[in-house]
């Protein structure tokens, strides 16, 4: 990674929340809560994973391919910007 | 839940593996490993979540709706069996 | 299938809309429209496929397993109702 | 788009196959074939849409952002190559 301190902090916060969600699923199973409740917790983990994925992909595009905010080549900047938007739509 | 002891043990093993995968992502971010590596770890978490989901859904169908293995009504048994197969295809 | 006339009409309307969306993607490719536009059209097809899937699964549960609206066994009725809700959350 | 003639032909072949799959789902519904059969046809459409998506994203990266095969900047080339691999893993 080695992106920015701020990116790193944000990604770490996301992954720690994900770990907390896994622990909530574990507790729900141990306490033998209803299947539907457990499945809803797992569905929210899936949403969190998609959110983490799109953030990692966006950071990768910005830091290792083309950063639309400071790219000189206008066509590349706009191509990278469009890709980030498309990925957000796909993984939301 | 309150399914069977065996189901519960298997589901708990899955969710603990998932927690371990979240910890691996956390370490990878802290050690500033490459984006592509982190993304591959996250992709494998997503696969594990799909596996857990399909297992929870299958258990729910068997224990709270119709268990194809001991249902008297043949049409319902076959309907439940088909649904389980379809869910496995969708979430594999 | 052989569900109800009304279910069938609704499912056919969905799949014809899907065919229309595929034709829109085809035209966009032929007219060499921008990648991002084409990708957005394909993303909306994916949403439509998820919608069709959840409707087919719900119809399958209601007509071939347990219909929560007229099931005598209250536990089964509630199990089927919960599964339908969970599938809607997963595939929305 | 306006990529290459060869890319365009390949994408058009994919989208026409997708249209054919939508027509197969339509026929299956009209002939009142079993739910499970229809759901399997819809599942294969979903797979085809993921395949089309990853191909469109890869073409977009190559033609509008960075083409790893002829990029001078080695870091960008490798960043784009990694992203294409990750997208293939996610959308396969």
From TrEMBL, chains A, B, C, D:
A Pfam family recorded for this sequence: Trns_repr_metal
On the tree of life, the source organism's domain of life is Bacteria
Q: Which PANTHER family match?
A: TRANSCRIPTIONAL REPRESSOR FRMR, TRANSCRIPTIONAL REPRESSOR FRMR-RELATED
Query: Which family, according to UniProt?
Result: Belongs to the FrmR/RcnR family.
Q: Per its record, how is this protein called by name?
A: Metal/formaldehyde-sensitive transcriptional repressor
Source lineage: Bacteria, Pseudomonadati, Pseudomonadota, Alphaproteobacteria, Hyphomicrobiales
């Amino acid at each position: 990674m080695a992106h920015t301190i701020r990116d790193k902090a944000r990604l770490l916060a996301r992954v720690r929340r994900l770990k907390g969600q896994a622990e909530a699923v574990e507790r729900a199973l141990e306490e033998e809560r209803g299947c539907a409740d457990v499945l809803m917790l797992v569905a929210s983990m899936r949403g969190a994973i998609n959110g983490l994925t799109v953030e990692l992909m966006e950071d990768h595009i910005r830091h290792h391919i083309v950063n639309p905010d400071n790219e000189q080549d206008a066509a590349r900047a706009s191509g990278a910007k469009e890709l980030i938007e498309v990925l957000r739509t796909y993984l939301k």
